[in-house]
């Protein structure tokens, strides 16, 4: 079997992550250090069921590069609590991507999502939280080069978060996507449906340091001819790590890195995922 030596870039990234984690552990272990806010960001591939707090906005960037297919995608999501009632949350998601199956097509924008989420059960302070989401899909991507669905659609998600122990939290997802008039690269149209399941465990090693293990499965229809579709499955296991920097003005910065690995129907696929979140107050929160 052919062996592959680590690349200098991979070794450098590993050393940087280890150095940052060691620094965080040392700081959090100091008896004189003040209590630090924990991390309640979304997982990398699995959605957590915590809406934004009153007066706080979050900006989330994620970049994923698949090595076999040569696909990559960058997404930016901004989450806002609805004024007066933080049970309601509005957000939007923008995508910029490249489809490896079209080597000469370059990169460009993908579809845009407008999202609404309702905190039906619990909150970030509860043992169990449940926050259903409904999203509208706008076909802004170019389907001729594999960058969009080709039609307006609807996406639903049912994220649930469960605190298992003081140091272990789990998140569970079930969702579906429907595009009544999806289009393929040839311009053929058909109704498509997709279903997804996700699960993650988050180990709260330190208040500002989390180790993560996610598993996501998707069963997706794609247009192959007029009014005809075919199903495709994917299964990824995604170990990762995230850490936080907290500032006195309320800003929290959360970087993260993960390595999605294909198993089962996705065996042989591998990727690198980079994550960055900025969360900060946008208005003065009244004192109780």
Kindly describe this structure:
The structure is a single chain. This protein is mainly β and 288 residues long. The chain has a single domain, classed as monomeric porin ompg (Porin), CATH 2.40.160. It contains 1 helix and 17 strands. It has one helix spanning 8-29; strands at residues 56-66, 72-81, 88-98, 108-109, 112-118, 128-130, 133-138, 153-157, 160-163, 168-183, 189-206, 209-225, 228-243, 245-246, 252-258, 261-262, 271-281. Strands 1-2-3-5-7-8-10-11-12-13-15-17 form a 12-stranded antiparallel β-barrel. Strand 12 (209-225) and strand 13 (228-243) form a beta hairpin.
Task: Record keyword descriptors for this entry.
288 residues; mainly beta; Porin; 1 helix; 17 strands; disordered N terminus
SSE topology sketch:
Blueprint (H helix, E strand, L loop, with lengths): L7 H22 L26 E11 L5 E10 L6 E11 L9 E2 L2 E7 L9 E3 L2 E6 L14 E5 L2 E4 L4 E16 L5 E18 L2 E17 L2 E16 L1 E2 L5 E7 L2 E2 L8 E11 L7
Antiparallel strand pairs: 1-2, 1-17, 2-3, 3-4, 3-5, 5-7, 6-9, 7-8, 8-10, 9-10, 10-11, 11-12, 12-13, 13-15, 13-16, 14-15, 15-17
Q: How far apart are the first and last residues' alpha carbons, in Å?
A: 65 Å
Largest sheet: 12 strands, antiparallel, barrel
Q: H/E series, N to C?
A: HEEEEEEEEEEEEEEEEE
Task: Please give the domain count.
Answer: 1
The name of the CATH architecture is: Beta Barrel
Task: Indicate the structural class.
Answer: mainly beta
> Care to count the β-strands?
17
Q: Regarding CATH, which class?
A: Mainly Beta
Q: Can you give the mean pLDDT?
A: 88
What overall geometry do the principal axes of the alpha carbons give?
globular
* Helical amount: under 10%
Oligomer: single chain
Percentage of residues in DSSP E strands: over 45%
Q: Using the CA coordinates, give the radius of gyration.
A: 20 Å
CATH topology: Porin
Count the helices. How many?
Answer: 1
Order of strands side by side in the largest beta sheet? 1-2-3-5-7-8-10-11-12-13-15-17
CATH superfamily annotation:
monomeric porin ompg
């Amino acid at each position: 079997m052919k062996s592959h030596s680590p690349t200098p870039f991979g070794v450098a990234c590993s050393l940087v992550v280890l150095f940052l984690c060691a620094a965080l552990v040392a700081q959090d272990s100091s008896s004189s250090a003040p209590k630090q806010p924990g991390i309640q960001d979304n997982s990398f591939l699995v959605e957590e069921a915590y809406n934004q707090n009153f007066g706080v906005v979050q900006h989330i960037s994620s970049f994923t590069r698949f090595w076999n297919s040569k696909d990559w995608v960058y997404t930016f999501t901004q989450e806002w609590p609805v004024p007066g009632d933080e049970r309601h949350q509005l957000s939007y998601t923008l995508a910029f991507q490249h489809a490896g199956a079209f080597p000469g097509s370059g990169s460009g924008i993908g579809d845009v999502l407008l999202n609404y989420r309702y905190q039906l059960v619990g909150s970030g302070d509860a043992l169990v939280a449940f926050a259903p989401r409904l999203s509208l899909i706008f076909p802004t991507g170019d389907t001729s080069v594999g960058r969009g669905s080709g039609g307006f659609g609807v996406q639903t998600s049912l994220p649930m978060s469960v605190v298992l122990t003081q140091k272990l939290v789990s998140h569970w997802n079930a969702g579906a996507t429907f595009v009544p008039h999806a289009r393929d690269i040839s311009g053929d149209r058909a109704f498509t449906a997709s279903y997804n399941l996700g699960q993650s465990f988050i180990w709260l090693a330190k208040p500002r340091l989390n180790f993560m293990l996610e598993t996501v499965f998707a069963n997706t229809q794609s247009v192959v001819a007029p009014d005809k579709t075919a199903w495709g499955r994917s299964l990824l296991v995604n170990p990762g790590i995230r850490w936080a920097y907290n500032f006195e003005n309320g800003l929290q910065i959360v970087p993260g890195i993960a390595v999605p690995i294909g198993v089962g129907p996705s065996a042989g696929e591998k990727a690198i995922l980079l994550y960055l979140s900025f969360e900060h107050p946008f208005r003065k929160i009244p004192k109780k």
